[in-house]
Specification:
- 36% of the residues lie in helices and 23% in strands.
- The strands form 2 sheets. Strands 3, 4, 5, 6, 7, 8, 9, 10 and 11 form a 9-stranded mixed sheet that branches.
- Strand 1 and strand 2 form a beta hairpin.
- Helix 1 crosses helix 4 and helix 5 crosses helix 8.
Amino acid sequence: MNKYWADFPILLAVAEIGSLTAAGQKLGVSQPTAGRRIRALEEYFGAPLLTKEGSRLIPTAFGETVLIRIRRMQDEADAIDRASAGADQDLAGPVRLSCTEGIGDLWLPYVMKAFRDEHPETQIEVLIDHRSVNLAQREADIALRWMGPGNQNSLIGRKVMTVGFGLYAAHSYIQRHGRPVTPEDLHEHEGVVISPANGTEFWPDELSKPSHKPSTTVYRSNSWHAQGQAVAAGHGIGVLAYFSWPPKMNPAPVERLLPEFGFSEDLWVVAHEDLRKTPRIRMVYDYVVNALLRDREYFEQGTNPKYAPDFAR
């Protein structure tokens, strides 16, 4: 049986993702290899582990029984990995942070430059991703997350602040189409939509009525960079974070619309409780939290950045 242990992560990935190709890409193996190793497991057990349901592969009843035990093994392996990291008391070494666009590229590089000026022995790795990475499996050491810490077990999370968002349009768009002055006016305009995760459109709850939205979506993306540049290019009206186009930026290509309908989202800093015992991870965690608090006005209102310059894009 020992020779099949290396195949268990493949079975687990396929069961979670539902695709041999996507699971193989995640684990760095080809689709034929992933399929061959699943078949080897099924031959060993003498029973099918996966079955087709629509376009997805899902566990059979027996497969789910096997997966329950594989997940236990994975949890124990992850715990050993975290315990090893917790025993590492050295400030020298890597720390991996996960965050989304905007925070991760407009602001964090400046913060971590200030950090490394004080602690040059620590290497910083940044993952820009919309998904909630698995901190228990050490996909990252620290995560900056929106709205909540997530539902993974044994996480330490702190809600640091709320980040402000509003509706914006380019001066060029307003010159061509006019400026909306009421929510109902939005229906006569064209929209630029951001769907950062799970296909959910990011739009103010107070303007959720169809009559309070642009009648036509002319540009859609899952990227905050693409969203900001599409609005600045004059495609239409879209949601942007206040800090993405600070008021001091001169000349700013966009302007805020209907300012009474601004809204906010909570920003959390999260780590696994085991990794908080590692001095360099704890040091980076505390540094990022304090830097966010210092730049609270920047994130909540788009003013007075302490780290990122106004021209950062």
